[in-house]
Specification:
Largest sheet: none
CATH architecture of the largest domain: Orthogonal Bundle
Oligomer: single chain
CATH class of the largest domain: Mainly Alpha
Structural class: mainly alpha
CATH superfamily of the largest domain: Flagellar motor switch protein FliG, alpha-alpha superhelical domain
Radius of gyration: 26 Å
Order of helices and strands: HHHHHHHHHHHHHHHHHHH
Number of domains: 3
Shape: elongated
Number of strands: 0
Helix content: 55-70%
CATH topology of the largest domain: Annexin V, domain 1
């Protein structure tokens, strides 16, 4: 198991005398203290076997094999070490900061080893909003597999709820985490975000990982809320993704876009997209687009983005119809 430096330090501090560990913590600056405490918290979600510990801490092999601390008691031991280092109030504050930071990263990592079928069963009797918070924090690939197992009428509702999540307080996420942990334990199974837009991205990534069938889901979401459906579509395929489209798909798209629109869109794009576009045009057509782009001069970014949006609408229409398959204050002047 590849462990970060922070986790290696955390294992060391959790495996030595608490007073000594407390003395080490007192000498850390705030940034290091936070990162090490987060690492301690993250160890609760990992299986740290004796072999791994031995590989990371060769100098502590003997002590570990002679009955050193079992890492299963990480939670209470970590709290005890922090209180010895900083006292009750500040120790609790440091621990809580770590908890909140973990929730903003991958709070439900322990569930990723479960099968999609097991996760689907865990969520079956939960309130849809609880299930949405859970799936939004789960690995996108795994969440997509779970969504694919839901009945058709529930898929759209769940993806919509994920996309519509607002600022979910850390304590709410923690409650969901605790509920799901208990369910996993009871069944004996082997085992954030500050911007609302982040949840739209999460919903888009979940759909991208469904492995097909996303079109009817989006259509049902559109019946419920056209704006959310549109936002999800925009996140599922962006203008930069055009550079990864197959050659035939690119040629089909370019055949439906006029020269001026294409030239405008090329004013602000990646090298990969530019190469894909010009590489699928005849030399004469490519020269015309390049010349028109250059003659446009300084252009408001909003006009460039609008041209890209219009081209993306063409791309999505072709994808939805099955004609192509996807591959993977002041105005700025560009």
């Amino acid at each position: 198991m590849a462990l970060s430096i922070d986790k290696q330090i955390a294992i060391l501090l959790l495996s030595i005398d608490e007073e000594l560990a407390a003395r080490v913590l007192r000498n850390l600056n705030e940034d290091h203290l936070d990162s090490i405490t987060r690492a301690m918290k993250e160890l609760q979600e990992l299986s740290i076997d004796p072999t791994t510990i031995g590989e990371v801490y060769e100098t502590f092999v003997t002590r570990m094999r002679q009955g050193g601390m079992a890492l299963g008691a990480v939670g209470s031991h970590m709290t005890s070490v922090l209180i010895k280092a900083f006292g009750e109030e500040r120790g609790s504050d440091v621990r809580n900061r770590a908890s909140h930071e973990i929730l903003a990263r991958r709070p439900f990592a322990m569930f990723e080893s479960l099968t999609a079928k097991d996760l689907c069963s865990l969520l079956a009797e939960e309130h849809p909003q609880i299930a949405a918070v859970f799936l939004a924090h789960l690995d996108r690939s795994k969440a997509g597999q779970v969504i694919a197992l839901l009945p058709d009428e529930k898929r759209a509702d769940m993806v919509y709820r994920v996309a519509s999540l607002d600022r979910t307080p850390p304590e709410v996420v923690q409650r969901v985490l605790d509920v799901m942990r208990k369910k996993v334990k009871d069944l004996g199974l082997a085992t954030l975000r500050s911007e609302p837009k982040a949840w739209v991205k999460a919903a888009a990534e979940i759909l991208n990982n469904m492995g097909g069938g996303e079109k009817p889901v989006l259509e049902l979401i559109e019946e419920r809320d056209e704006g959310v459906a549109s936002d999800i579509r925009e996140e599922m395929f962006t203008f930069d993704d055009i550079g990864a489209l197959p050659k035939k798909a690119m040629q089909r798209i370019l055949g439906q876009i006029d020269t001026r629109q294409l030239a405008m869109s090329m004013k602000a794009t990646t090298a990969a997209v530019e190469e894909a576009v010009f590489g699928n045009l005849s030399k004469r057509a490519a020269d015309m687009v390049a010349e028109e782009r250059d003659t446009l001069g300084p252009t408001p970014l909003s006009e460039v983005l609008e041209a890209q949006r219009e081209i993306l609408e063409v791309v999505r229409e072709l994808m939805d119809s099955g004609e192509i398959q996807g591959g993977v204050g002041g105005e700025e002047l560009v």
